[in-house]
Design brief:
Elements lengths: L5 H4 L12 H12 L6 E5 L6 H13 L13 H7 L6 E5 L6 H10 L10 E6 L6 H12 L5 E7 L7 H4 L3 E4 L5 H14 L3 E2 L1 H10 L4 H12 L5 E2 L1 H8 L4 H12 L3 H13 L4 H19 L11 H13 L2 H17 L6 H13 L3 H14 L11 H5 L8 H5 L2 H5 L3 H10 L1 H11 L1 H8 L4 E7 L2 E6 L4 H8 L2 H15 L4 E6 H8 L17 H10 L7
Helix pairs in contact: 3-4, 5-6, 8-9, 9-11, 12-13, 12-14, 12-15, 13-17, 13-28, 14-15, 14-16, 16-17, 18-22, 18-23, 18-24, 23-24, 23-26
């Protein structure tokens, strides 16, 4: 004989046992106490939140043979028959497989027969939104004027698909997702009663993975109990789910925040090779990015239900993200999470979403590059001149600044004026780099650690932060990129100019009278072919390990 599924064994049998839906159970208890039983109910809400269980408890309470204050007693033969699923007067219909008008006509023909042994005959129609329009029309008259001995309970996860004419004839109750804390506490009771032990972190992971569905949580627990070990560990839960730790998800999202595509793709590939499920990775990444977004907009962090280490990691990532980039990433991962349900190559879909989220659009890149120069007003005057900015506002045309100043005049410009001219002529640089190396354009325009600091004679100084060193060495210092950038600068200034890359902090220290700086040195050795492809074709940026 097959063992009974855990979610059926631990199904709620009284209103008090229904978890997380007190607003529903209290209203139903009060209505029954006052004798105000409706002829039709609509239970709407996410899957696994107790809709069908509550409908069965309602049928049990109405038909229980015990005293009213004891109902449901779960001892009388009516209660036991409902619990065991053998009461003839409780008819459960799966609308997903009985969608036609003929099915509803058959129901309508039988609804007039009086109950066999119970007071009231209950019809529970699950996933009622799956009925056809003709079936709804056939059901409508019966719902409007049902026989006095019949109660309908319609259950659905998509109430918006139910015709308004049907909705208007039902008392509607909306079931909410169950909180992680309530799921965790219920799972702990089940584990203890079944004679097992479980690590607290494992319970937490199960509860959070269920996303508000108690049935999903209990089904996952049932699967884990089949492992054979008496102690359920967090490692077992991750193995079953194909999931990874939040810290690792955070490391992956950090590469996204810094535009480090190559490292991000390599990490994603390693996780999949180690057994992580792409669909689960997409779900975890989306939940993580949601938390980062909450922190970015200043929401209460206690609502995120994460530990202190993960919260600190999220704060760092939120600080690294620009708000438009973060919103775009959340949207992209939300789309790919839905797409992966039917994707033939889920890993590829996830990789494309990651690359797109980490690579700025052409318009965003140009806007970021121009505004980056404006942001330098807070830097020390020697490193980032401000006088030219006060005299020169960016022009409305794409290259108006370059066109209005003749070649001779350009040669006489000061470093401050040249920096201002570079800002106003950014489109010239953008067009050159877009044609030769979109990756280089992405690095210079991404606000992620690389910026123009100054122009000294015929030399344009580009500063980089340590996190961007690898991007400078492997992308910007490639010969073809250097040539394209210097050609663009020569067009802007009307005379040959070269570029020099320096650590930004060291350059600022030198300008302030401190230690001198050292220009970045090219990395020795070649790149892995996969990394090189990501760098050249997808604009990847990666920190050297």
């Amino acid at each position: 004989m097959a063992a009974q599924a855990l979610y059926r064994k631990w199904r709620s049998q009284t209103f008090e046992e229904v978890i997380g839906q007190e607003h529903v159970t209290r209203t139903l208890r009060n209505a029954l106490r006052e004798g105000r039983l409706a002829h039709a109910y609509l239970f709407a809400g996410p899957r696994g939140t107790g809709k069908t269980s509550t409908a069965r408890i309602l049928a049990k309470t109405v038909n229980c043979l015990a005293d009213p204050e004891e109902r449901p007693c779960n001892r009388c033969h009516i209660c036991q028959a409902i619990t065991e699923g053998r009461l003839l007067d409780l008819i459960e219909i799966d609308a997903a497989s009985n969608t036609s008008v003929d099915d509803i006509r058959d129901l309508r023909d039988k609804v007039g027969f009086r109950p066999n042994e119970a007071r009231m005959k209950f019809y529970i129609i699950d996933e009622v939104h799956m009925l056809s329009n003709s079936a709804f029309n056939a059901l409508l008259k019966t719902l409007e004027e049902p026989p006095p001995h019949v109660v309908f309970v319609l259950c659905t996860t998509e109430p918006h698909r139910i015709p308004a004419t049907v909705l208007s004839r039902c008392q509607r109750f909306d079931f909410h997702r169950i909180s992680t804390a309530d799921i965790r506490a219920h799972l702990a009771r089940i584990v203890a009663a079944e004679g097992y032990e479980v690590e607290p972190e494992a319970l937490e992971l199960i509860a959070r993975t269920a996303t508000g569905s108690m049935r999903d949580a209990v089904s996952l627990l049932d699967q884990l109990l089949s492992y054979g070990d008496r102690v359920i560990t967090v490692a077992q839960v991750r193995d079953v789910l194909g999931a990874i730790s939040e810290q690792t998800i955070g490391e992956w999202m950090a590469t996204l925040a810094h535009g480090d595509v190559a490292t991000g793709l390599a990490l994603l590939n390693r996780l999949v090779m180690e057994g992580a499920e792409p669909r689960e990775l997409a779900r975890q990444a989306l939940l993580y990015l949601r938390g980062v977004l909450w922190l970015k907009v200043g929401s209460d962090p206690s609502l995120l239900d994460v530990d202190a280490d993960t919260l600190a990691q999220m704060r760092e990532i939120a600080a690294a993200f620009a708000m438009p980039d973060l919103v775009r990433a959340v949207r992209l991962f939300s789309e790919v999470a839905a797409e992966l349900r039917s994707s033939v190559q889920p890993q590829l879909s996830l990789e494309l979403a990651f690359v797109e989220a980490a690579t700025p659009t052409t318009e965003a890149a140009a806007a970021a590059a121009v505004s980056d120069q404006g942001e330098e007003a807070e830097a020390p005057p020697a490193a980032v001149p401000t006088g030219a900015r006060e005299r020169e506002e960016p022009s409305e045309g794409p290259s108006a600044g370059a066109e209005e100043i003749g070649v001779a005049e350009k040669g006489e410009l000061s470093g401050e004026d040249k920096l201002a001219l570079l800002r106003s002529s950014w489109d010239t640089v953008r067009r050159e780099l877009q044609a030769k190396s979109p990756a280089a354009l992405g690095v210079l325009s991404s606000r992620r650690g690389v910026r123009f600091l100054a122009v000294e004679g015929q030399e344009v100084i580009i500063g980089y932060q340590e996190r961007a060193r690898y991007s400078v060495e492997q992308i910007l210092q490639r010969p073809e990129v250097t040539e394209a950038l210097e050609q663009a600068l020569s067009k802007v200034f009307g005379a040959p100019h070269v570029v020099r890359y320096v650590p930004e902090d060291a350059y600022r220290a030198k300008q302030a009278g401190g230690e001198g700086e050292a220009a970045v040195r090219p990395a020795e050795g070649g790149m892995d072919p996969l990394v090189e492809t990501a760098v050249n074709e997808y604009g990847a940026q990666a920190e050297q390990l």
